[in-house]
């Protein structure tokens, strides 16, 4: 008798010619597993490179931001200077072999107003007569010179100009003079000044040390004037009156010792170093 199932030999109930689903599952379990091997050294090296690149990029961004801020503040708001001499003592200290005062000036104040009597200001030498004894801080090497110029934009090098610091005594339209015989000291429009910032003991000491060449009496130097200050200019003098080459020393130049307001770099606001002298620099109006 023929087997009625001969036609279905080797087929699964679903018609799968490869056998039952259970048999195939067992075959797959017996198959060799597939593995992926990773090179840990290569991964670590890649992560290290990415970390270094990220750190370098962040550092560059921070440095760029700092430089931009330094440029903006230096050019438009504030700048640091070093007091070059003793001419403003005792208000500002500067001398050979000592810790000269580091001062900060306000560059914005005169964008909205004019200098007033009593302001302590930093200004650029307005004529060549003020440059006696001054030499450029720039290198003679062209490359270094350019680098120093660039650094000065960020206050990392001094500007290539002769900067001085004095106190405004008279402004445009006012007449200033001093006559020892009158006993009044410096006068503006004929009125004696009130100058509490002058240390009279220091003036007497200057007179003694110099054997009298630095001047005594109420003028603390030679008579001068009368000189009428042109509009747009100021007359400046040092607080260490008998030891200051200020406007009096340049009367014979083309500006008669006066300083154009356009040459003023800013108003001194504070001393930031040495730490023992940190504090504000007040503007005492001598005409008040």
Automatic annotation (TrEMBL):
It catalyses: Cleavage of hydrophobic, N-terminal signal or leader sequences from secreted and periplasmic proteins. Its EC number is 3.4.21.89. Keywords: Hydrolase, Membrane, Protease, Transmembrane, Transmembrane helix. Residues 57-272 form the Peptidase S26 domain. The keyword Iron-sulfur does not apply. The keyword Ribosomal protein does not apply. It comes from the Bacteria. Gene3D superfamilies: Umud Fragment, subunit A. Residues 21-32 have a biased composition (Basic and acidic residues). Belongs to the peptidase S26 family. This is Signal peptidase I. It comes from Gordonia hydrophobica.
